[in-house]
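Lab channel / #folding
Pinned by the channel admin:
"Please post every new chain as: sequence first, then the C-alpha cells as a reply. Keep commentary short and put observations after the output so the thread stays searchable."

First post following the new format, from NK:
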Amino acid sequence: MKHNSYKKKYKVIKILLTLIILLSFSPKILHAKNNVTCKLSEENQIEKITVKVYKNKNWTKNNIRILISNTRTIPKKLRKRFKGELQVQYTGGSLCVLKAKVRQNGDFKDHFIYINNNIKQSLDVELTNGNLGGITNFKLLLDGTRGNSQDEIFLTELLRELNFISPRTQFVEAYVNEMRSTMLIQEKSAKEMLEYHGKIESAIFETNENDFFKSLEKFVNNNLTSDEIGLNASLEKAKKGQLARQINGKWSLKSPMHLEISLRALSNLNLVYINSLNNFNQNSNNNTFNDNFDNTLLGKQNKKNIIKLDKYYLVLKATNADHALEHNNRTFYWHKLENYFEPIYYDGNPLIYKNDNIEIDLPVSSHLGEALEELEKSLINIDLETFKKKLSNRKLNFTNQEIQEKMKIINFNLSRLRTAIDNLNSDIILSEREKKINQSMMEEALVNKKENNSGALFVFKEIDQDFNSHFLLCKNYNHCEKIKLNKKEQSKMLSGNLFQNNQEYIYVGYYPDLQIKSEIKKFNFVSYRNDDVNFYYNDGIKFNFDKEKNEFNIFQFKPEARAYFINSKLKNLNINFNGYKNFNDLKFFPFDLKGLTGCLTFFKSNFENVNLKSQDSNCEDSLNLVNVNGKIDNIVISNSYSDALDIDFSNINIKNIVIKNSKNDCVDVSAGIYNFEFLDLDSCGDKGLSVGEKSKINIKNINVNNSELGIASKDGSIANIFNVNIQNVDTCLGSYNKKKEFSGGYIKINAFNCINFIKENILDSQSRILLEN
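Reply from TO:
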C-alpha cells in the first residue's frame, strides 16, 4: 500500500514537472478578450503574423470569385469583410491573439496573385478588440504593390523626419491562407495616425473614386495594353470629374460644429479640385500642366503653409514617388487651427535610384525655390545614426553606406529640380493672388462629373444658412431646388455614400463659389517682441497690452468667444483671461469652427517665465495648450464651465497650478511629457487630474479636494508622483484602459494619503497602481 501510494505521488509529480517544462518552453499567449496592446519595441519585434478567417469556406469562395472575375480590377462587391483573428508572434517568443475583420485589399489585381495552386493577396485589416503597437486599422500589402518596398519604408520614415504625416510601415513575415509571404504592414489614415503625429483629430479627405473604378470594371483582363483597350483614356476622363470625400465621416456626427467644419472644409477642397481642371493636359513653354493641385490654394494663401506643401511635393519628386501626387491618391488632413490642407502620404510607388524624367509640373507657387532651400537644409540636419535605428525598427536593416547612397541620390535629384525651377518662365508661375472659381469652371466640372455618372445629383449649401439642414439639390449648376438633409444623411453625403432612388447625392460645397470667409482677426505684438508673438481672436473678444508690466489682458464679452496664440515665443509675460460669466445658451460647445476647445488656446508655442490666469470661462476648456514646450511659472484658474486646464501633445514644465471650481476635470493632459511641481485642485466635477493617451507625467506634490475621482492614469500613460493628498472624493485613484488603440495605465506614488472616500481605487487587468508608503 505504501509502495502504491508512493507510485501515485511520483506519477503526479512527474505530470506536474512535464507540464512546467512544456509551459516554460511554450510561447506565452495573450488572448485579447478585452482591449489588449500587442506591444512593439526594439526588444519585442514582430517575427510573423498569421491571419485566420473563421468562415474559411466562405472566404475561399470569395477568392475563387475574384480569381475567375474577368476584369482588370478587383470588383468592389468582392471586397467585403470577414471575421477572423491575427496571431502575432514576437521575437521574444510571446504570442498575441487579436480579433479582426479582414477583407481583400487593392483596386487592381497586382494585390491578388494565383501561383502554384495557391493565392497570395493583400489584406485590409480592422482590429476589433485591441491594437498592434497603437494601430487598429492597417493594410498587409504584397511585396511590390507600393513600388520598391524598401524605398517605401525608407520614404515613410524620411517624411516623418521632415515633419510630414506618414503611415508607419514595416516588413513582416505573414501567413495568409497558410501561404507565407514577405509583406508590408502599413497603417491607414485614421485617428491613431493623427495621434502618433501629434495632431488633434479632424476631418480627413481623399478623392471620391466611386466613378473612377466603376468606369474600369467594364475592361476585361486580356493581353491587350491599357492604351489598346481604352483603359487609360477612361481613366483620364474619370479624373476630370473627380471631387473629394471625407474618410472619417463619423467624426462629423460628434456635434453640429463637427458637421459644419466638415462641410466647410470639403467645400474649400473641392474648390482646389475644380481649379485643377484648368491645368489638365495643357502645355506651355515646354512645361507640362497636368492634374497637379495648386499648393497656393491648398495652403490657403499662407506662405508658411504653402512652403510646407511645396517641400512635400519636392521630396516626392526627388524620390520618384510622385504617384502619390495624382488626384486619386491624394489624402489630406484638414488643419483646423492653421487653416490649410496638410498632406498625408499615400501610395507613392517610390523608386529612389531612378533619376530620369525629373521635372517640375505646373502650376507651381512663387515660393518653390525657397521651399527647395529649406528642404535641402532639413535633409542635412537629419541624424543618420538615429534614422538608421528607426529603419531597423521597421525591419529595414540598411548599412550606413546604403543610407548615405539613398540620401545622395535624393540630393542629386533635388539639384536637377533646382535647375528646372531656375529655368521656369516667371510669367507662367502662378502668383499668390487669391484664385477664384468662376461659373464656367463650375459648370464644366459638373458636366464632367455627369459624363462619368449620369445619375449624379449635386448638393450645395447656401452661404447664408449656416448651422441648419437646408441645402440646394441641383441637376446642374443653375437648376436647383431646396431640400433638407438630416445629420446622418449629411455625414453619408460627406463620405460619398448618400444614395436616394438610385441616384448619388454628391456634395460640391457652398453656393455659389465654394469659398468661405474667415472670421478670425489677428493682432501683432510688434511692440512686445517683434514678430515672436501671434495673437488671434474673433468677435466677442477685447484686449489690452500693458507694455510696462508686460501684461496682456483678454476680455470675453460674448459667450464662447475665442482667442489664441499660434507659433509664438512667449517670454516674461503675464496673460489674463476674463470670461463672460454667462453659461447659458452655449452655441459652439464643445468647440468652434477652428476646432478650438479652449476660450484661450496656445498652439505650437514656447513659454519662458510666463504666468497664465483665467476666470469665468464658458468653453469646453478654460485654457488649452497644444504642441507647446518650455516653462510656465504659474497657472491659476477659477470658475470653469467644463475642463479648467487641458494640455495635448506637449513637453512642458509648470511650477504651480491652482484650480478651483471646475465642472468637469481640473487638469487633463494627453499624449505628452509633463513635469509639474505643485498642484492644488479644489472642487472638480469629475477628475482632479486626468492623464491619458500615452502621457508621461512627473509630479512633486498634488492636493485634490472635493472631486469624483482624485487622479486617473489611463490609455498607456505613466504617472510618477512623489506626494499625494486627496480628500472628499468618491474614488481616490483610477488606472485603466479606455480606448482600444492604447493599453492600460500606471500610477506610482511615494507618499500617499487619501481620506473621506467611498472607494480607494479603480483598476483593470491591464493597469497598475504602486503605492510605496
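NK: The radius of gyration is 29 Å.
TO: also worth noting, The chain has 15 helices and 41 strands.
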